[in-house]
Amino acid sequence: MAYSSYYIKKSRRGLFVLGIISLLSLMIGGTVFFRQVGRENGWQKTKGINRLSVVNISPHGFEVVWSTNNPVTEEQWIEWGTQKGVFTAKQNAEYINGVYYTVVTGLTEDTSYHYRVRTGTKTYELNALVNTTVRTPKESKEKPISPAYGKVIIPSGKPYANGLLIYEIDGYYPLAVFTKETGEWLLPLTGLIDKKSNMIQSAADTVSVSLKLFSYPDGIVRTTVLQTRPLRQAITAGISMRLAQLPQEGSVLGENVRISSPQLKGQPRIVYPKENAIIPGNAPLIRGVAVASQDVLVLIQGPTKQYSYRTKSDEKGDWLIKYSLALGAGRYTIAATTVDTNGFPLTLRRSFSIIKSGEQVLGEATGSPTLIPTPTITPVPTSTSSIPNSTPTIAPSIPTATPPVTGGGMSSYLFAALFCLVVGAGLVLAF
To answer: Which residues cross the membrane (predicted)?
Structure first.
């Protein structure tokens, strides 16, 4: 073999190796470059959202609540804008009791806004939707009505504090509020937005409403708007029920009411003890009314012990708890579970106190203070937030500082990618 032939083959082999290196440099550089650019522009998607709801929509804002598979591990926020795919504003989320919560304000009435949920370098995706749209309604004047309010407890009977309650009237966009430390909640029923017309309009008292806790999606309470002003029956987290129709008399949160309509006489209720009664002795009378010949399960939660009893109503619907245990001094809560006249599960609650022997009650015996509506309801702007604070004002808000929007900038990854691209292109041109 001639030396020239050997040299030509060796030279071609070198060119081939350099060509492979050039192509690899171009591929690596291009991959890193476009991946980093995609991160900067939110191209990456993740399906980490479990639930997401847009609540408290108003002419100049809305609120977004969601939960994810990786809570608290990364900062999360909302981006929005008036053009699809173009996001010009940003607001960081608050993390409250397992729920991310963001308030978007300063919007224009009767305008569509596109928004997305972001974390780190990724955009969250829910049901194959990355960018979603909400349209603000037009300004409108409406006659104010009394607010909806009530109380939420956990199955043990303790207050459910800082829990997100979703209040959704059939045919209207949902409202939301966080419960107080006492488990109490209050929502102004102003600024209700009809889903079909996207107009602000009041809802009739007879319209059905669903109440559910965001962190307990399996439990739904069904009733009417009127029955939530106030909601006398405490909501139990994770329990679904349809509340009975009761006349709007008496005080809030479970006080025994006077039955004035023949159609309501068969509805289950606790007759004794009265709400927040203070009872001397250790054997209070516990009796009530239920649907005829139905089982009634009664739980008595005391300061240190819990007692469980099962009884059955007679042919007239009356039931009575007979027990031999003496109750010590302290505050007690009764939970009587049965079914209503429609066959739906129903839990009735009542609180009372046992006083020590020798103690006297001066004046009228009352329990601890609860949410009490003021005689005059002041209209509240619909754009305010609904996070509660220490005072029972209507729809209080928590101001959240708007963080600076992250800029573009060239990171070290982009420099490395550009370097690989230049080297690869140079080798290709050279050989």
So the answer is: 410-430
